[in-house]
Give the backbone structure.
Amino acid sequence: FKQKTAYEIYQCDWSSDVCSSDLNGQDGSYLAEYLLTLGYEVHGMVRRNSMSENQDSRVIHIADKITTHYGDLLDESSIDRILQEVMPDEIYNIGAQSHVRISFDMPQFTVKTNALGVLNMLESYRRICPKANFYQASSSEMFGNSVDEDGFQRETTPMHPVSPYGCSKMFGYSIVKNYRNSYKLHASNGILFNHESPRRGSNFVTNKVVKTAVQIHLGLAEKLELGNLDTYRDWGHSKDYVRAMHLIINHPEADDFVVSTMGTHSVREMTKYVFKRLGMNYEDYVIQNKIFMRPEELQYLKGDSTKARTILGWKPIYTFEEMLDEMIDYWLNVFKK
Ligand code: G4F
């Protein structure tokens, strides 16, 4: 019996309050937990950070059950070394500079990490352990403002990204397909729509709204500054989406799958719900600040995940409201302590 070995890439996701703190992202931590429950031996790559506490803050509770390795998507020698040492059965590349607005401030870093980083991974994988299965975290941001006539985005919807982040992810997505076809690798893309949880960095809009609304409710803050309130997102729960990653990588045929709830809500609706749950009217507290606007904005996302539901048997468990309620309860607990 050979225990399956999964190798995850945790790249600094630049998504926490302090840039470059959490090397182990929201999805990485939930995926590691999930794979452990399935009996996997889990290895993860972490980037060196001047604050060692922040390198494994989201996986600290399972630190004794996983193995972390220092490395970087832009340092091919580190990827080679780790793959040679681990010889994994499954490789999940979920490392990225994942913040869309920040990708306008750091376009070159974003493209190097999210595009060249994928190529570096694929090259090491192809040379060292081509029998492994590979998962690439692709994104609904690749669609840009392209929507099918029925109001959904799906695997066949044309992609017209509107941010350096979206452009970089489109390269990653394309090069995975190219390597799959050229070298007969089992390399798949999950095209994941927005997914959130209490572990989401609090400079993404859901956790920013929930955290600040709870602070206002407890008298710890007065106002919430937001950018565009009238964009729409298809928001699911990260825990549901890491299950999809595992199903995608284990499907007999390497392929590409949209992962989404098939519903959509505006930032305004989400904000209204959170404030109402806390007994407040959002209009009394929310102000717009243009520093949170993007030079070009993706207006509307609603994913059609019929393919993943039919072929993989995947479906989300959390509703939009249950996900937000869990986040509200989390921050109430944090601030009431
Ligand atoms: O929460 P967001 O920053 O997520 P965004 O840009 O949709 O990207 C997320 O989802 C992608 C999948 O489609 C991932 F690939 C990506 O890595 C990331 O996880 O912003 C959501 C919406 C945007 O329209 C934004 O303009 O909220 C709007 N918004 C309004 N005020 C704000 C704010 N976003 C942020 N981050 N902060 C605000 O103050």
User: Anything to note?
Assistant: The pocket of G4F is lined by residues 98, 100-101, 139-141, 193-194, 203-205, 208, 226-228, 231, 233, 267, 292, 294, 297, 301 (CB under 6 Å). The radius of gyration is 19 Å.
